[in-house]
Amino acid sequence: MLRRHRIIAALTAGAVIAVPLAGCGSSSSSSGDASSSDGSKVSVVASISQWGSVAAKIGGDDVSVTSVVTSSSGTTSHEYEPTTQDVANLTGADIAIVNGAGYDSWAVNALADDTDTTVINVADLMNVQEGANPHLWFSVDAIDKTASAVLDALKASDSAHSSDYDTNYAAWTKAYDSLKQSLDIVKQETNGRTYVATESVAQYLLDDLGMIDKTPEGFKNATANESEPSAQDIDEMTQIVQNKQVDVLVVNDSETSDIATNLDSAGQNSKISIFHVTESMPSEVSNVLDWINMLAASLMMTIPSSSSASASASASE
């Protein structure tokens, strides 16, 4: 138990991973014309703020970054209805970053015939097809590959500031390595632990942490396709939560439904550990690396310790 407390303390103390850069960059939500910024800077427009934060850190003071969908948008990207200005910002950018895999089809479609904008499609980088889990920003591998693609695109677009971008990328890589070390520490507690989820939003992160998804297939497939799970699937899921047959219930707070609300209530009543997560990066977090680290720390504080979980399992036998 003492070791666990030390791990949590270390993660919480390092919840914000410093990324010292050659320049702090400029970043904004898509509330206006992205081209109105300093014309000497490379313009980068991202469909979601998670990917925009990567460009802002690697680009530093030499780029102007606009993210279309942020935590203040009031919706997730796959439900977002872009404005004419949003589309103009995307097609007018030097570099556009889209998530792909059906999560932001409005952005992918807007750029389909654009030959002037360098498009970074994260799903393409990861070979993830439409219909698969599109929440790629929870994958540390996807973050790493996107950062590398952003560096290449910036240097190709603005070779005069290549050294700045290299310096910023080196700092980013150091922060990324620090995150990986933190996740390795967390994995010592989470590896092999089980969970069910109201929606598979955090699956990539939980996979990275060695956790095992016990969500009934029927329930999982229905929520992935944005359809209603069957009564049998809902009952099976509810029984798992009520009887604490897994270590953690994962709740996506970005997608509210009666089913998710009822499962959350059932979890609170059964006193199962509940891990709350959102799809959009919180406004108080400056970059996706910090966010993933904060989520890992939150999970460590949520999940029961290995010893207490074993005791609980023995008591229920």
From TrEMBL:
Entry GO CC: cell envelope
Superkingdom of source: Bacteria
Single GO MF annotation: metal ion binding
Predominant cellular place of this UniProt entry's protein: other
Keywords for this protein: Metal-binding, Signal, Transport
Pfam family, one: ZnuA
Compartment annotation: Cell envelope
Signal sequence extent: 1-22
Annotated PANTHER family: HIGH-AFFINITY ZINC UPTAKE SYSTEM PROTEIN ZNUA-RELATED (PTHR42953), METAL-BINDING PROTEIN HI_0362-RELATED (PTHR42953:SF1)
Protein name as it appears in the record: ABC transporter substrate-binding protein
Lineage: Bacteria, Bacillati, Actinomycetota, Actinomycetes, Bifidobacteriales
